[in-house]
């Protein structure tokens, strides 16, 4: 009888332990589910904000604004919120109709927006080479001399004071072009100003119409944008 009582007590203890464990597991699952629901809600809110920003770009954009859109695209496509929810990446294409003359950058073609960004970054790197404070011209950059007149260059680099009646063209061809150092400098100034012109023309001179916005048919999220130069 005593053994039977002990057995019943043990069985009851085991049952209670199982019930407690079951309640703990259930509570954990409920808490995890609640946390996941909150995470999903935060992700959806974040993605909704992204979508609002994309929609604001659904208009005519300058080149500089396309580069800003590229930053938004990169942020969205790599965001944990998008990856967690499994939503589509946003694909953006850009058609340039008119090539910029005398440059390898931004030529007429249809590009993924990331290729436009790559062109812009390569252009920036090339410009930066001419802006280094110490280059080969009296420890001054090409950018520095690009802001100087031919007369000032002759005085600064050659120690020559051109005749007062000499035009800029005469100073260049009769003095600067005949010296190897200043001749090289003139070529680099030309290259640098050409890069600046290309940089400015794309960013502020070109405009692109948003001609199409694609949406996922199941969730209504933007997954495509198409821009064509005006």
Describe this entry's structure for a reader.
With 230 residues, the protein is α+β, with helices and mostly antiparallel strands. 61% of the residues lie in helices and 13% in strands. A 5-stranded mixed sheet has the order 1-4-5-2-3. Helix 1 packs antiparallel against helix 2 and helix 4 packs antiparallel against helix 8. The protein is elongated, with a radius of gyration of 33 Å.
Rg of Cα set: 33 Å
* Form type: elongated
The count of β-strands is 5
Number of contiguous helices? 8
> Largest beta sheet: what is the strand line-up?
1-4-5-2-3
Provide the structure class: alpha+beta
| Poorly predicted parts | none
Share of residues in strands? 5-15%
Cα separation of the termini? 97 Å
Query: What's the helix-strand series?
Result: HEHHEEHHHHHEE
User: Biggest sheet, in brief?
Assistant: 5 strands, mixed
Q: If you average the pLDDT, what whole number results? A: 88
Helix content: 55-70%
């Amino acid at each position: 009888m005593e053994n039977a009582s002990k057995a019943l007590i043990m069985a009851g203890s085991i049952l209670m332990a199982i019930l407690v464990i079951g309640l703990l597991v259930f509570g954990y699952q409920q808490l995890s589910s609640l946390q996941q629901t909150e995470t999903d809600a935060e992700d959806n809110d974040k993605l909704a904000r992204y979508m609002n920003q994309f929609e604001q770009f659904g208009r005519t954009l300058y080149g500089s604004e396309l580069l800003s859109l590229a930053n938004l695209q990169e942020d969205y496509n790599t965001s944990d919120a998008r990856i967690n929810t499994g939503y589509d990446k946003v694909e953006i294409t850009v058609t340039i109709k008119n090539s910029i003359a005398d440059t390898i950058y931004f030529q007429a073609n249809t590009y993924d927006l990331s290729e436009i960004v790559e062109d812009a970054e390569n252009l920036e790197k090339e410009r930066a080479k001419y802006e280094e404070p110490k280059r080969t011209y009296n420890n001054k950059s090409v950018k520095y001399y690009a802001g100087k007149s031919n007369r000032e260059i002759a005085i600064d680099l050659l120690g020559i004071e051109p005749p007062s009646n000499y035009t800029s063209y005469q100073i260049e061809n009769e003095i600067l072009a005949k010296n190897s150092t200043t001749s090289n400098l003139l070529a680099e100034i030309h290259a640098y100003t050409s890069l600046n012109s290309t940089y400015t023309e794309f960013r502020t001179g070109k405009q692109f119409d948003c001609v199409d916005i694609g949406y996922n048919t199941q969730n209504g999220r933007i997954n495509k944008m198409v821009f064509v130069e005006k």
